[in-house]
């Protein structure tokens, strides 16, 4: 397990201890790593849209993330919710 | 929101790509390291994009074809959107509106791209006048007791 100089998110705190690391296993159905602490295991995420512009009130942002190795069970459900308010958009 | 023909063409092309991705004959297969249930989530994301782009295309077409003659706004924050829509409904390009107002050709496009952020009230009025835009709004005051 590699953490760069920018540190690591708190969700990996337990996995950094020998006891926590011993709990790391593979979900047999999904084939993804089960991390103690509940990390979903996403390696790369990109944030874009008005959120990264100079707009004073971005209102929303766009993003995408690499799905390989991500545990759906551990993923925050908000990332799988694609309901949209079309009236607000148009 | 789609504000000009260029964005309209790009959006149409992108919509096709999303639709192709959802079509079983031209679609995609997630790579082996992806949770098998993830395909459903990915398809939901694609469907959501199709919905958004289709709605934006329809709104632009409705405006351009003269099927929208007014918009109710729920606050001054929506005024810039109304100005953009009024221009499209009036059949004017960004460049034509800029010319009407004696502004550099790209000026309206620049203002619209950041929703008229920082543009003064007098200028906004001038644009509304050039577009023949009528505004009748009821403004509620927070009356002190």
Outline of the structure:
The complex is a heterodimer of chains A (90) and B (145). Chain A is of the alpha+beta class.
Descriptive overview:
Chain A is of the alpha+beta class and 90 residues long. Helix content of chain A is 10%, strand content 13%. In chain A, the strands form 2 sheets. Chain A has a two-stranded antiparallel ribbon with strand order 1-2. A two-stranded antiparallel sheet of chain A has the order 3-4. Chain B has 145 residues and is mostly helical. Chain B has 6 helices and no strands. Chain B is elongated. Chains A and B meet through loops of A and helix 2 of B.
Number of alpha- plus pi-helical segments of chain B: 6
The main β sheet of chain A shows up as: 2 strands, antiparallel
Helix and strand composition category of chain B: mainly alpha
Quaternary structure: heterodimer
Strand/helix succession of chain A: HEEEEH
Shape annotation of chain B:
elongated
Into which percent range does the helicity of residues of chain A fall?
Answer: 10-25%
pLDDT < 50 stretches of chain A: none
Q: Specify Rg of chain B, calculated over alpha carbons.
A: 20 Å
Number of DSSP helical runs of chain A: 2
Largest interface: A-B, 20 and 23 residues
Report the mean per-residue pLDDT of chain B as an integer.
Answer: 93
From the spread of the alpha carbons, the general shape of chain A counts as elongated
Number of strands of chain B: 0
Major β-sheet annotation of chain B: none
Low-pLDDT runs of chain B: none
Distance between the termini of chain A: 46 Å
What percentage of amino acids of chain B are in beta strands? Answer: under 5%
Beta fraction of chain A: 5-15%
Please give the number of β-strands of chain A: 4
């Amino acid at each position: 397990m590699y953490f760069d100089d920018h540190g690591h998110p708190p969700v990996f705190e337990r996995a950094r201890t020998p006891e926590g690391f011993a709990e790391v296993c593979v979900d047999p159905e999904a084939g993804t790593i089960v991390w103690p602490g509940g990390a979903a295991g996403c390696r790369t995420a990109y944030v874009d849209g008005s959120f990264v512009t100079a707009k004073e009130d971005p209102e929303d942002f766009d993003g995408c993330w690499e799905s390989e190795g991500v545990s759906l069970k551990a993923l925050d459900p908000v990332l799988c919710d694609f309901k949209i308010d079309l009236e607000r958009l148009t | 929101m789609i504000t000009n023909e260029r964005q309209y063409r790009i959006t149409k092309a992108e919509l096709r790509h999303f639709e192709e991705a959802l079509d079983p004959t031209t679609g995609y297969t997630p790579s082996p390291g992806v949770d098998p249930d993830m395909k459903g989530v990915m398809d939901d994301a694609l469907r959501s994009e199709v919905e958004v782009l289709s709605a934006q295309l329809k709104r632009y077409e409705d405006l351009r074809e003269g099927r929208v003659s007014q918009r109710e706004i729920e606050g001054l924050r929506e005024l810039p959107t109304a100005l953009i829509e009024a221009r499209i409904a009036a059949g004017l390009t960004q460049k034509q509106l800029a010319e009407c107002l004696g502004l550099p050709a790209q000026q309206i496009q620049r203002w619209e791209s950041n929703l008229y952020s920082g543009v003064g009230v007098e200028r906004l009025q001038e644009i509304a006048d050039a577009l023949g835009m009528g505004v009748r709004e009821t403004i509620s005051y927070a009356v002190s007791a």
